[in-house]
Amino acid sequence: MLPLTADTSWMLHASLTATLASLAFILWHVRKSARLPATLVAALFLVAGVTGIIRALTPGSLPADQPAQQVKAGCPAHEARYHHTASDFTADFARFKGSNNSPYYLHLKSPLAHDYWFRFSSSNGYGGLSLIPIHNPLKADAVDGPQDIHATDADQQALNEALPYLRYYPLNEADDILPDALPDGLAPTHFLLPEIGQLFWYDPGLLSGLANTPPEVMPRGFFRLSRCNTTSS
User: Which residue has the higher pLDDT, 32 or 165?
Assistant: First the structure.
């Protein structure tokens, strides 16, 4: 039996409602000796409702996007597409103007269709991995390359205070935390940004570089690998 996801739960609820309503309609019309056509129509709705219940509870019967557990490890980072398990945020990785020698950058797309870009920063010892907000690397100058949003000393102080909220934890299929952001240029099966939601709500301008950036909600959740575009050029 399938777990009751949002899709299956909705179908099950709708099908149960249709089944009970159709059954009540049939019983009422039989008692009233109603004409046969009306009863047949209700019977068809009853069959449809029962079929919907069976589909909702049968594995593999509902069309769905490629679930994360079916995407095998080994996807090149630039081909990976992620969805957030607790919101409508999505994520992917890109290189500076498609350069094969450029480091990868993380791109988050918000439910309000705002783009946020980050580079990875690795600290020595137990410092781990963090994200540094940058301007869109796909629009960066070919000579200077992608630039940090917080480049001045004053901005740097604000960024340092925000770094605890910008931690990045890449994980493999066994849920081991990986030491590198993208080991060998391959995408992690999922990654976690556990505290960044506080910045999206309380200080989204720090992430975008724009003072009028509206707050958005990102509850804690995983970014799971949902698609690998291995056929892309």
Answer: 165
pLDDT digits (tens, 9 = 90+) for 98-137: 555 568 999 999 999 999 999 999 887 777 899 999 998 8
Query: What is the per-residue pLDDT across 166-178, written as a single tens digit (0 to 9) for each?
Result: 999 999 999 999 9
Residues paired with residue 169 on neighbouring β-strands, in sequence order: 192
Angle between helix axes 6-31 and 36-57 (nearest 10 degrees) is 160
> Are residues 158 and 166 in contact, defined by beta-carbon separation less than 8 angstroms?
no
Q: Which of 67, 2, 56 is nearest to 226 (CA)?
A: 67
Q: Taken in order 131, 166, 170, 125, is the CA torsion positive or negative?
A: positive
- Written in H, E and C, the secondary structure of the chain is CCCCCHHHHHHHHHHHHHHHHHHHHHHHHHHCCCCHHHHHHHHHHHHHHHHHHHHHHCCCCCCCCCCHHHCCCCCEHHHEEEEECCCCCEEEEEEHHHCCCCCEEEEEECCCCCEEEEEEEEECCCCEEEEEEECCHHHCCCCCCCCECCCCHHHHHHHHHHHHHCECEEECCCCCECCCCCHHHECCCEEECCCHHHHHHHCHHHHHCCCCCCCCCCCCCEEEEEEECCCCC
